[in-house]
Structures are given as structure tokens and as C-alpha cells.
């Protein structure tokens, strides 16, 4: 199966950058493409419990709604919990759908994907 | 199942975080013979996914895995 990986490095301080991987992931699933999103650096702030509910931009639904659609479509979520140490923020209470992962997982996902996009 | 596995060597990665559990596991598996088993303990939650993927890519076999009170224990057979 064709695979695509989105790497989310920007976080809730730039909410306009958070929708794309979920929208694209849902689209990929509809195209029979296996999609994963890896949240790292500031990106992890988007997958802390309760954060996506607070974000709503323009005429888009809330980020939580878009996230729910993507997860429901089978998009896999990976979270670099260790980025919280890098940022000096308390380790997050992350959404339960996410898998806590690190460098070996990101390298492996990138190597096995047919394409990698970063937001 | 893992009660029957006798490791040739053990490595304690408790308290270590990415990338150290992977680095230590690689160093230690090179100290055992092909076909022998390395037991790895870690408490980094990322290690479950990371070590599983590392083993697959490195060509080794995870023959046992336990998760108890935040401690992950892997039994990895060196395959090459």
C-alpha cells in the first residue's frame, strides 16, 4: 500500500499550520493511501488533550473536528513526547489515539513512506 | 512465554530517553552471539514503538515483550 507521512513541527502558536496534515490525511485515506502524522517540536502542543477544541479558524470547523475525521478515517498519530523536554514544558497529557514514539520510529516511517511532507 | 527465555545478556535502559535506549541496545546486542537473546528494560514510553521498529529494520527478532507498571521488557534475538 502506498504510504505518506506528514511531520508536524509547528504548534498551537501558529494554528493556521495545524489543519493541513489532518485534511490531507483524511484525503489520503480516501485515496487508499496509508497516512501517518508525526508530531514533534512545537507540533506536540496540538495533540495535548483539550487543545484542538480551542482552535477554530475562518470558516473551518474546529481542529478537534478535523482531527476526529482523520483519526476516524484511519490516519495514524505518533507523538514525540520528548519534545516537551526540548521546549521546557511539562510532559503533555496527550490524546489517547496517539502513539508515543521517538527517533527510530520517525526514521522508519520516513524510510517506508513514498512521500514525506512537513508542516 | 517469556519465563522460558534465557537471555545471554541484559541491558538496563531505565531512566534513559530517546535515542539512548536504541543506542545502548545496539551496543549490547553486538556483544552476544548470533541466535542468543538480549534482555532490554526501559521506561521511556517511546521505546515500545522505537525498539520494535529498530529491531525490524536491524534484522533482529523480538521473541518476547512485557509491559508492567511502566517498565518495558524486550527479549531480542540477534539474527545476524
Walk me through the structure.
Chain A has 119 residues and is of the alpha/beta class. Chain A has a single domain, classed as DsrEFH-like (Hypothetical Protein Ychn, Chain: A). In chain A, 31% of the residues lie in helices and 18% in strands. Chain A has four helices and five strands, in the order βαβαβαβαβ. Chain A has helices spanning 19-30, 63-72, 83-87, 103-112, and strands spanning 3-8, 34-39, 76-79, 99-100, 115-118. Chain B is of the alpha+beta class and 80 residues long. Chain B is built from two helices and four strands; from the N terminus they run E-H-E-H-E-E. The longest helix of chain B has 12 residues, at 47-58. The interface between A and B is medium-sized, with 14 and 16 residues. Chain B: This is Sulfurtransferase TusA family protein. Chain B: One of its GO terms (molecular function) is transferase activity.
> Which stretches of chain A are poorly predicted, pLDDT < 50 over at least 5 residues?
none
Largest sheet of chain B: 4 strands, mixed
Radius of gyration of chain A: 13 Å
CATH topology of chain B: Translation Initiation Factor IF3
Most extensive contact: A-B, 14 and 16 residues
CATH class of chain B: Alpha Beta
Assembly classification: heterodimer
CATH homologous superfamily label of chain B:
TusA-like domain
Helical residue percent band of chain A: 25-40%
Question: Strand-residue fraction of chain B?
Answer: 25-35%
Specify the overall morphology of chain A.
globular
The biggest sheet of chain A amounts to: 5 strands, parallel
> What is the string of helix and strand elements of chain A?
EHEHEHEHE
Mean pLDDT of chain A, as a whole number? 96
Shape-level CATH architecture of chain B: 2-Layer Sandwich
- Give the structural class of chain B: alpha+beta
Just give the CATH class of chain A: Alpha Beta
Number of strands of chain A: 5
Residue windows where pLDDT falls under 50 for at least 5 positions of chain B? none
Strands of the largest sheet of chain B, in order across it? 1-2-4-3
Fraction of residues in helix of chain B: 25-40%
Amino acid at each position: 500500500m502506498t504510504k505518506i507521512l506528514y511531520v508536524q513541527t509547528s504548534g498551537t502558536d501558529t494554528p493556521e499550520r495545524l489543519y493541513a496534515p489532518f485534511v490531507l490525511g483524511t484525503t489520503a485515506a480516501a485515496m487508499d493511501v496509508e497516512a501517518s502524522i508525526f508530531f514533534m517540536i512545537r507540533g506536540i502542543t496540538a495533540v495535548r488533550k483539550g487543545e484542538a477544541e480551542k482552535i477554530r479558524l475562518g470558516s473551518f470547523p474546529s481542529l478537534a473536528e478535523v482531527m476526529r475525521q482523520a483519526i476516524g478515517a484511519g490516519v495514524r498519530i505518533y507523538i514525540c513526547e520528548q519534545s516537551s523536554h526540548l521546549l521546557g514544558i511539562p510532559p503533555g497529557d496527550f490524546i489517547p489515539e496517539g502513539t508515543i514514539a521517538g527517533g527510530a520510529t520517525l526514521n522508519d516511517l520516513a524510510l517506508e513512506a513514498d512521500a514525506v511532507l512537513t508542516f | 512465554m517469556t519465563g522460558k527465555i534465557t537471555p545471554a545478556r541484559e541491558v538496563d535502559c531505565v531512566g534513559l530517553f530517546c535515542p539512548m535506549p536504541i543506542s545502548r541496545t545496539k551496543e549490547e546486542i553486538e556483544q552476544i552471539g548470533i541466535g542468543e537473546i538480549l534482555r532490554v528494560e526501559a521506561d521511556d514510553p517511546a521505546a515500545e514503538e522505537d525498539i520494535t521498529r529498530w529491531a525490524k529494520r536491524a534484522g533482529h527478532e523480538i521473541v518476547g515483550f512485557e509491559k508492567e507498571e511502566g517498565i518495558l521488557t524486550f527479549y531480542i534475538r540477534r539474527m545476524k
